[in-house]
Each structure stands twice: as structure tokens, then as C-alpha cells.
Amino acid sequence: MTTELALALRSARGGDFTKLINAIPYFAFLGVEMTPRDGRRVAVMRFAEHLVGNPTVPALHGGTLGALLESVALLECLATTESTALPKTITLTIDYLRPGKTQDVFAEARVVKAGRRVTTLHARAWQEDEAAPIATATVHLKVSTAPGTS
Amino acid sequence: MSDVPSAEELALFQQVIREFVPHNRALGIEFVHASFEPPSVTLKLPWSEKLVGNPLTQVLHGGAVTTLLDAVSGAAVYTKLRAPTPIATLDLRVDFLGRAPARRDVYAKAECFRVTRSVAFVRGVAFTEDERDPFAASSATFALSTKGRAPGTAP
After folding, report:
1. Which of B51, B57, B91 is the mutation pick for testing A, counting most A CBs within 10 A?
2. DSSP H helical segments within chain A, as ranges?
3. In which band, very low, low, confident or very high, does the pLDDT at A149 lie, cut at 50, 70 and 90?
4. In sequence order, what E strands does B83-153 have?
5. Comparing C-alpha atoms, which of A122, A138, A53 is closest to residue B73?
6. pLDDT tens digit string along B52-105?
7. H-helix or E-strand containing B31?
8. Which chain B residue is nearest to residue A1, measuring alpha carbons?
């Protein structure tokens, strides 16, 4: 592993995601960053015109919401487990509950079960009203833990 | 109706998928093929540095694959409906079956195998060379006749 990514993973474990997010080109493309609130790890996908899927509604592309939910689950997994590499997504199941409006989207994930090989998380995305999520997801991640910690 | 899409129908698919959907355009998604029997669509996601999810291995971020599968699944619904009905994704499951490709163009093919009055059911795969050897598979449902207009239809 390159030193750069190893350092980024260590920072993420300490709650600082800046290095990791900067190291992953797709996060810049989506406009995903962390926006901590009340001690919680919350991600935000900043609205941009290129995230739109249907301009007549207008609504965000469903794929971008899936990508945000998968990303926040991955970041939550890194923050809460001793990962020695980026976890790999095994399955991602998204429920689309409301259309994504052309504004910022927030997302948060929680670990349902942290296993030695597989970690299961639930993720949620919302816009103005946190109590009215626009999409939720279940994510199974394959994790690599350091020798001796498993 | 013919079982084979006409040149006009193929041109409309291409235009809607590439030009009408801003996020598809941003990803560089291209139209490859559409068929009415079976009702299916194939799209291509050309390799791009900006879509990398792991700088070490250079593999695509899963989110780009999910978006491609969502796009191809939605398009497949129209090969079954053959009408400009507005649709909305209800749910989408993506199974990442194997090693995601690095520095490779990716293709996705989806088939709409059932529609009822209110729901369409779609299966899809993502692959680099052979659709029988996919690295991801998807299952999606779409609500039909939702609010708004179908992509590419006039107001």
C-alpha cells in the first residue's frame, strides 16, 4: 500500500476524512465531503447541475444517491473499524423514497454489525428534513482488518 | 409494432440517454444497443480517471457502476413500455460479483422482464467483454406513471 493511502486511512480512523476524500477522484466528481454536525459523521453531496437525472421534474439521478449512500457507509466503516485497506462493497440495496430535489443531500450511516470479514451498515439520505429521508440503503462491505485484530 | 427498433427509435434512445440526462452526459455514458424482443438496452461507460474509487488499484468507484446500472435499467423499461410514461426507481440492488475493472471501458445491459399496470421489473449486468461474465449484477423495480414527464418528452 502506498504511504499516502495508508496515512489517509489512519486519519479516517481518527475522524479526519479530508486526506481520504482528496485521494479518491470520484468523491470530487460527485462533490462529496464530510460536514460534521453535533459530533455525528454526516456526509454531504453538494448540488451541481451535472448530478441531475431528469431535468423536467427536476430530480437528481438515482445513481448519485446510491453512490452517496455507498460512500457514507464506506467512510463510517473506516471510522469505526481497523481497516488496513479500503473495504470492498459486496451488495448495495437502495430504496428510493422521495425524488431528490436540486439541492444539497446529506447522508449518514450506522454499523448494524461489524464482523471479522463482513460489516453491515444502514445508510440514510435526506435534504431539508432529516425525518423525511429521500433514500435509504443496506450495504454489506468486505473488510480487511490488520493481522492480530481479527 | 415491429419487434426491431426503427432508426428513429434508436436515435431517440441515443439522444435521451446521452444528451437529455445531465448526469449521464457528465459520466460520458454512451448508447450501444436497444432491442424490443427481448426488451433490453446496452450502454457503455468509457474509462475515466475522475471515476476512480481506489487510487491504489485504480478501480472504478462502485457508485459509477451503480449509476450505470440505474441508467440502463430505466432505459430498458422503455423498450418494454414503448410509450413515454414517466417512471421512478423504487429500489435497486447491486451485487458486486468480482473484481471491479481498472482502466477499462465498462458495459451494462438490462432487460425489463415484466411490467404490471404500476410497476416494471428489471435485471441487469455490468461487464467489460462478455455479458455472461459480469463483475456486477442488479435487480431493480420502477414505479410507472409517476409525476413529471418522461425523459426527452416535450412539455
Report:
1. B91
2. 3-13, 18-23, 25-30, 62-80
3. very low
4. 87-96, 106-115, 119-127, 136-144
5. A53
6. 998 888 999 999 999 999 999 999 999 999 988 889 999 999 999 988 889 999
7. strand B30-36
8. B56
Dist. CA B92–CA B110, nearest whole Å: 12
ipTM attached to this prediction = 0.93
Cite the DSSP H helix spans in chain B: 7-15, 22-27, 62-81
pTM of the model: 0.93
Note whether B33 and B13 are within 8 A (CB): no
* Tens digit of each residue's pLDDT (9 = 90 or more) over A82-129: 888 889 999 999 999 999 999 999 999 999 999 989 999 999 999 999
- DSSP assignment, residue B129? S
Residue B155 has what pLDDT? 59
Residue in B27, B38, B103, B66 with CA at minimum distance from that of residue A71: B66
Largest CA distance in chain A: 54
Q: Name the grid cell of A52.
A: 441531475
Best interface-test mutation with A: which of B27, B59, B66, B146 has the largest number of A CBs within 10 A? B66
Query: What are the distances in angstroms from CA B7 to CA A96, B17, B34, B110, B144?
Result: 34, 15, 11, 20, 26
